[in-house]
Amino acid sequence: MTILDALPIGAGVVLAGLIGLVLGSFIATLVLRWPAGRSVLGRSQCDGCGRQLGALDLVPLLSAIASRGRCRECGGAIDRFHGRVELGSALLGVAALAIMPGTAGWLWALFGWLLLPLALLDARHFWLPDGLSALLGVAGLLVAGPLLQTTLVDRWIGAVVCGLTLAAIAALYRKLRLKDGMGGGDPKLVAAIGAWLGWQALPLMLLLASLGGIVFAVLGKRKGDRPLGEQPIPFGLFACTAAWVAVPLWPVLIAR
Q1: Which of 20, 115, 227, 253 has a CA that sits 20 to 30 A from residue 94's CA?
Q2: Of 192, 180, 98, whose CA–CA distance to 137 is shortest?
Q3: Which of 101, 116, 140 is where one domain is finished?
């Protein structure tokens, strides 16, 4: 038994929520700054007047609520994206520890926190940075065993086989259709996810991700004039969502 297993369920849920709020603040900053070429590690500033923000301005959720969503200096509106990401990140931690207490729950929360920036960057910019996918993959190989009781070999197989399979599918599509049907970051992301789930749960993850992409494309077709096959789909968003959801679903499915 580890110290994580010894924590009372309520304490674990609260602690995971608080950690999620703090991480969510950083994730929101990363998603907003990195694509714009701005430093992720620099001091936080008001987007309106450039004033450097102090500690009281940076308390996740509470600072924005206290200031009514506006800069105290210039009155400019604070991007609501910050609060939404902070809340979402906190909910990932709360849900993980409420559903799966102990070490597995903390690993599930960590998995979600690593997936979140990738999902948001793909949803907003169709971009899956190799550095974030590499971090996700390395973390999975190092620590993810207790999450679904997988061996290191299982996770290596999941990473290599699934990554190569998606890369082969992308190459075949490009050869037959003479255009890209999948971004270059998608196979790397799925390989990194395989390093967490192992090869056994990957078919479930890919099925859920594909269903999400199909629904997105169909809904997009109703709103626009593009043919169904030409709808741009942020597959990384659906792969990240499906990967996180597959963690509690997979043990239930194999138990039947």
Answers
A1: 253
A2: 192
A3: 101
Residue 164's CB: how many other CB atoms inside 10 A? 12
Please give the average per-residue pLDDT across 105-132, as a whole number.
Answer: 97
- CA dihedral of residues 43, 16, 87, 41 (deg, nearest 10): 20
The pTM (predicted TM-score) of the whole model is 0.90
* Domain-terminating residue out of 57, 81, 101: 101
Q: What is the pLDDT of residues 136-164, one digit of tens each?
A: 999 999 999 999 999 999 999 999 998 89
> Residues 91, 110: one domain?
no
Q: If we measure between CA atoms, which residue out of 190, 194, 198, 201 comes closest to residue 238?
A: 190
Contact 201, 143 (CB under 8 A): no
Tokens 């626009």 appear where? 224
Question: Among 213, 204, 211, which Cα is nearest to 246's?
Answer: 204
Range of 85's domain? 1-101
- Count of domains forming the chain: 2
**How many residues would you count in the chain?**
256
Does 244 share its domain with 159?
A: yes
Strand partners, 77: 70
